[in-house]
Design goal:
This is ABC transporter ATP-binding protein. 23% of the residues lie in helices and 35% in strands. Helix 2 packs across helix 3.
Length: 358
């Protein structure tokens, strides 16, 4: 296992990048602590796989250095970094049995036969393939082959890091949940440093200790699931995390109040004068429908999603989502929405501004 340090890492696929927009990965300077589980989360094309490939050695960064446990591995090939990597699509040896596939990384390292047998059996149980151990991989389905890839990555306990690049894409939904749970259990048991790339917020938030949210080639926030939900550092994080995401409303902020089209909203903190694009952000969970004391709203649609209702409203000409109790009454007319002041975030030019005690 190893602490992974990224020192001023940036990468461009162009021969002579001249401006920031030329970089697929903008500068990253961060330490991933030994033994923790991280998720790289963001939409396609945001730079997360580029960053993972730099860590694994499949790609050399245009700038910066990569250190494993203090050792500079920037120019070290993948084979010498002592990592295990599982890719989006399964990589297995079709002519081998499931057992032989799982044992392959251990045999290559000269592990004794008894230990190999024990680890293969343990991992086969984790991925639900105990009954398939003697089958050739060639005739297996894509999701079964991906389970073998996952198992082969998990069978070693001496790696510096386990890297997963969208490994559950071809896995059926029920098995996704099972394998995420098993990966989390493995991490708790053995304490490997794990880095998991995904575009799925549920996968990221249920797997990782810390989530690295990426947008347009840039790391916009690294935090716990709670921090990403409660205090999104960037409006993209507020939009991308949550279902639905954070409501954003343009506003003028005056001390401990926000003014939206002449209507005042109390804030939980005070703020100095802000310039540029100023917005307030509030999660749908912290918006309530009321008959008075809020902002005028028009209810456009109500969606019953089981445990609660999702109310799609229009507030001062802008869409606002409200999560309402399943059995609670809804205003039939003259609806208004009120915000929990303590849950309002303030943004200037898309970045969260820290307030002071109001």
């Amino acid at each position: 296992m190893a602490q992974i340090t990224l020192k001023n890492i940036a990468h461009s696929y162009m021969d002579a990048p001249s401006e920031e927009a030329d970089y697929a990965l903008k500068e990253v300077d961060h330490v991933w602590r030994d033994g923790e589980a991280y998720a790289l989360l963001g939409p396609s094309g945001c730079g997360k796989t580029t960053l993972l490939n730099i860590v694994s050695g499949l790609l050399r960064p245009s700038h910066g250095r990569v250190l494993f446990g203090g050792e500079d591995v920037t120019d070290m090939p993948t084979a010498e970094r002592n990592i295990a990597q599982v890719f989006q699509f399964p990589v297995v040896y079709d002519t081998m049995t499931v057992r032989e596939n799982l044992a392959f990384p251990l045999k290559n390292r000269g592990i004794e036969a008894q230990t190999i047998t024990e680890r293969v059996q343990r991992v086969a149980a984790m991925i639900g393939m105990e009954d398939e151990l003697n089958r050739k991989a060639r005739g297996l389905t894509a999701d079964a082959k991906q389970k073998i890839s996952l198992g082969r990555g998990m069978v070693r306990d001496d790696v510096n890091a386990l890297l997963f690049d969208e490994p559950l894409t071809v896995i059926d939904p029920h098995m996704k949940w099972e394998l995420r749970t098993q990966l989390k259990r493995l991490h708790g048991q053995f304490g490997h440093t794990m880095i998991y790339v995904t575009h799925d917020q549920t996968e990221a938030l249920t797997f990782a200790d810390h989530v690295v949210v990426m947008h347009d080639g840039r790391v916009v926030q690294i935090g716990t699931p709670e921090e990403l939900f409660e205090r999104p550092a960037h409006t993209f994080v507020g939009y991308f995390i949550g279902s639905p995401g954070m409501n954003l409303l343009p506003a003028e902020v005056r001390g401990d109040r926000a003014v939206i089209d002449g209507h005042e909203v109390m804030l939980g903190s005070g703020y100095d004068d802000l310039s540029g694009k100023v917005e307030i952000g509030i999660r749908p969970e912290f918006v309530r429908l009321t008959d008075e004391g809020g902002l005028p709203a028009t209810i456009k649609r109500v969606e019953d999603v089981g445990r609660h209702r999702l109310v799609r409203a229009e507030v001062l000409g802008r869409p606002v989502n409200v999560i309402a109790d399943e059995g609670g009454p809804l205003p039939s007319e003259n609806a208004q929405v009120a915000f929990d002041p303590a849950r309002i975030n303030v943004y200037a030019n898309d970045w969260r501004v820290e307030g002071r005690a109001a």
